[in-house]
Each structure stands twice: as C-alpha cells, then as structure tokens.
C-alpha cells in the first residue's frame, strides 16, 4: 500500500482530533470556499467520517461580488459531491455594504448562511478551514492595531457550533494535501489584492519576518495566541464573577471597591458594565474603557465621559453609573 503523504496525514489527524467527541450519526457541516484550506478540510472530514460514522454536509456560499461567482460556486458544489460529501448546498447571499468594507460585509453574510445551515441540519459541528498561517496573520494584524490581549489571542478554536480543526496545520500542508489528492483548487483573486491588509501581511510581512528572524515565526505567533487565549479566557471569567459580585440592582458600581481591584480585572469589569448598559461591543474601544477607568483611578471631578450607545459614564456619591444621557 502506498504510504500516506505527511501533509494529507497532518490534515486528517487534525480533523480526527477535533471531532473525536462527536457520536456516530452526528452531522458535520463543512464550509467550503473551494480554496485549498477548506477543500483539504472537506476531503479529510469525508475520510474521517467513515470511521466516525458522521454525515458530512458541504456548503459553499456565493457572495455575488465577483464576476463568474455563480459558476465558481456551482463548481465547488460538484467538487464537494465528487469528494464524497453526503449532501451539498450552494447558497447565494446578498452582501449589503453599509459602511463596513466588502470583506467584513461578505463575512457577516456568510456566517448568517452558515448559522442557518447549521441549524437546519441540526449539525453537531460547522467546520471552518482557517490554518495556522491565518492565525499568525490575525495575531499580527491585532498587534498592529494595538488592541488588547483578546484580539492578540487570535481566533478561537471553537465558538457556538463552529470549529476550526486546522488552526495548528500549516497552509503549506493544505496546499500540498490538495496537490497530492489531485484536487483542483480555486485561487481567489482577493487573496492577491494588496488593498487588503491581510494580503499584505501574508505576502510581504510574514515572509520578511521569516527571512530575517528565521523560520517558524508563523508557528510561534500561533503558539503565542494559544497561550494568550488561555490567559484572556481566565481574566474574562474572573471579571464576570467580579462584575456580578460588585454590581448593584440599578447597575451602579461602588468606586472604592473597584479601585481595590488590579488594573487588568477592573478594566474588564468596566467593559462588562458598559456592555451591560447597552454599548455596542464593536464600537466600545480601549480608549472608552480607559476614560471610564479614569473616573475611578484619576478622579478630578470629570462631569461625565461619552461612550458609544450613546451612553454616559458618571461618578457620584461613590458610585459609577453608565446610562443614556438625559434628553435635552
Ligand atoms: N464562500 C465561502 N463558502 C463557504 N465557506 C467559506 C467561504 N469563504 C470562506 N469560507 C470558510 O471560511 C474559512 C476561512 O475563509 P478565508 O476567506 O479566511 O480563507 P480562504 O483563503 O478563503 O480559505 P480557503 O483556502 O479554504 O478558501 C474557509 O476555510 C472556509 O471554511
């Protein structure tokens, strides 16, 4: 028997490990763009499903943003069926560009479809093909934005129904696995467009880091993310407990007790308080939390601080409150 190629073995092993808890009969949805990562993921999932006894559903989403996208989606549906998926689906979405960039809008539309497909099939897992290199790019982009530990912690391995089995697999391996298995992969033109920061990181920044610092930078960044994620998860859990302990029934927080808490915990409690008061998570920035924190640690009689919502943070009578501004 010919020996299994190491790249194919690496992808299959990652899938086997990530899905080890699924019972026979479970439905696994694989989100497949037709690119090397998700095609390798689908091929490995179909292979592993024979031993696992799972039903594999391949789904591709046509964002309708590029010429010929419908034909491309139809081709992926055929490929998924040929690879042995038990069921396949192609969904066309309407990407609404309201303020955010096309990439973000496409992602939102895609996840809305995947959510629905996952629910429709009562899927035990919906798989995404993000690799170790995607993770390294995410960490570098977070680092460049100067965001906190949460975004440096990169992508989560699991959330809701979603799982990312290839988060520790190198992109080189998914590309090689597709070559070895004779899969005809789609080369998304967006992956070459230097207008996207992620593309610049992929094509220029990471190769330069590897050239000057030695190989293994992507793997090191992904490992860093893993460690930071564990730390960030712990701090977030502690902050939830602390917030629940401190918050009064009317939502106010006692300043003296907040001031006693370590910075990392206090700022997280303040962030939770702002979210509880209705601040939109996507708009609540580090600078807002710092301004709130100044009401506790750098109090010099500030009248209020503005938060997205719009909301106001105020301090009075030893209590910190976050609420909508009074109607003029
Ligand atoms: N059009 C799509 N239809 C279904 N799933 C998708 C689609 N685009 C992306 N995904 C899912 O999201 C994952 C990450 O997508 P992203 O665009 O970041 O990477 P990619 O370079 O397209 O990956 P791939 O090599 O699998 O195409 C993909 O691996 C796949 O699981």
UniProtKB/TrEMBL annotation:
ATP binds at residues 33-38. Residues 28-203 form the tRNA(Ile)-lysidine/2-thiocytidine synthase N-terminal domain. Its EC number is 6.3.4.19. It comes from the Bacteria. It catalyses: cytidine(34) in tRNA(Ile2) + L-lysine + ATP = lysidine(34) in tRNA(Ile2) + AMP + diphosphate + H(+). Keywords: ATP-binding, Cytoplasm, Ligase, Nucleotide-binding, tRNA processing. Residues 253-309 form the tRNA(Ile)-lysidine synthase substrate-binding domain. It is found in: Cytoplasm. The keyword Iron does not apply. Pfam families: ATP_bind_3, TilS. One of its GO terms (molecular function) is tRNA(Ile)-lysidine synthase activity. Its main location: cytoplasm. Belongs to the tRNA(Ile)-lysidine synthase family. The N-terminal region contains the highly conserved SGGXDS motif, predicted to be a P-loop motif involved in ATP binding. HAMAP family: tRNA_Ile_lys_synt. Ligates lysine onto the cytidine present at position 34 of the AUA codon-specific tRNA(Ile) that contains the anticodon CAU, in an ATP-dependent manner. Cytidine is converted to lysidine, thus changing the amino acid specificity of the tRNA from methionine to isoleucine. This is tRNA(Ile)-lysidine synthase.
């Amino acid at each position: 028997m010919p020996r299994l190629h190491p790249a194919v073995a690496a992808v299959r092993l990652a899938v086997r490990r990530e899905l080890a808890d699924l019972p026979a009969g479970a439905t696994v949805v694989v989100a497949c763009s037709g690119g090397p990562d998700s095609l390798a993921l689908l091929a490995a999932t179909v292979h592993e499903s024979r031993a696992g006894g799972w039903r594999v559903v391949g789904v591709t989403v046509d964002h309708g943003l590029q010429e010929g996208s419908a034909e491309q989606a139809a081709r992926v549906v055929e490929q998924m069926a040929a690879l042995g998926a038990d069921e396949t689906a192609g969904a066309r979405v309407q990407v609404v560009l309201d303020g955010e960039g096309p990439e973000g809008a496409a992602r939102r539309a895609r996840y809305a479809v995947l959510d629905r497909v996952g629910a429709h099939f009562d899927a035990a897992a919906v798989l995404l093909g993000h690799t170790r290199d995607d993770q390294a790019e995410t960490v570098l982009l977070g680092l460049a934005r100067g965001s906190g530990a949460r975004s440096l912690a990169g992508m989560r391995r699991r959330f809701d129904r979603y799982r990312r089995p290839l988060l520790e697999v190198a992109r080189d391996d998914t590309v090689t696995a597709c070559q070895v298995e004779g899969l005809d992969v789609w080369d998304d033109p967006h992956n070459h467009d230097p207008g996207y920061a992620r593309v610049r990181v992929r094509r220029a920044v990471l190769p330069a880091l590897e050239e000057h610092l030695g190989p293994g930078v992507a793997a090191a960044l992904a490992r860093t993310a893993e460690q930071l994620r564990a730390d960030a998860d712990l701090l977030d859990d502690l902050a939830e407990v602390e917030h629940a302990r401190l918050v009064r029934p009317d939502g106010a927080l006692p300043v003296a007790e907040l001031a006693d808490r370590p910075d990392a915990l206090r700022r997280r409690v303040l962030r939770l308080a702002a979210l509880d008061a209705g601040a939109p998570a996507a708009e609540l920035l580090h600078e807002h939390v710092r301004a709130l924190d100044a009401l506790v640690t750098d109090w010099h009689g500030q009248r209020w601080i503005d938060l997205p919502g719009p909301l106001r943070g105020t301090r009075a009578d030893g209590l910190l409150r976050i609420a909508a501004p009074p109607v003029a």
